[in-house]
Amino acid sequence: MEFEQFVLSNEPAIRMGFFVGVFALVALCELVAPQRRLTMSKALRWSSNLGLVVLNTVLLHLMFPLAAVGMAAFSAANGWGLLNHFHVPFWLAVPLAVIAMDFVIWLQHVMVHAVPVLWRLHRVHHADPDYDVTTGARFHPI
Asked: What does the chain look like in DSSP terms, one character per residue?
């Protein structure tokens, strides 16, 4: 129970730590062993792509403050969700929830490729002139 409380009370920091850690690891790998020659300046692309990340993060926090965490807490309080209907230990509930969330993100990705209006927004991600660690974070603000 103590570990569960720690995770719940530090969720934003844990998520940001994983994002920054994985991002730095991949960026370091690209620096040490680049797989292709870039056609644009890395500084220009990184400032543009990471600028989109900052803009998207600010807009998300202005439009949906604590939306994901708030919705999760609301759902738990009201007994919504599959894991609220079965007694599942926390150590198993976390990986199951991560797998379910990953599936939903995959499904969303399929949708943004299949639905024309969503594709018009998503193609910002695919319009990156080069491909590196920042491409994965390059999305339209909407």
From this structure: -HHHHHHHHTHHHHHHHHHHHHHHHHHHHHHHS-SS--SS-HHHHHHHHHHHHHHHHHHHHHHSTTHHHHHHHHHHHTT-SGGGSS---HHHHHHHHHHHHHHHHHHHHHHHHHSHHHHHHHHHHHT-SS-STTGGG-----
pLDDT digits (tens, 9 = 90+) for 43-64: 898 898 999 888 988 887 777 7
The region of weakest confidence among 4-8, 111-115, 127-131 is: 4-8
Query: What's the rounded Cα separation, in Å, for the pair 111 and 99?
Result: 18
> How many CB atoms neighbour CB 73 within 10 A?
12
pLDDT 10s digits, 62-92? 777 666 677 777 887 888 888 778 888 888 9
Cα angle for residues 42, 132, 62 (degrees, 5° grid): 90
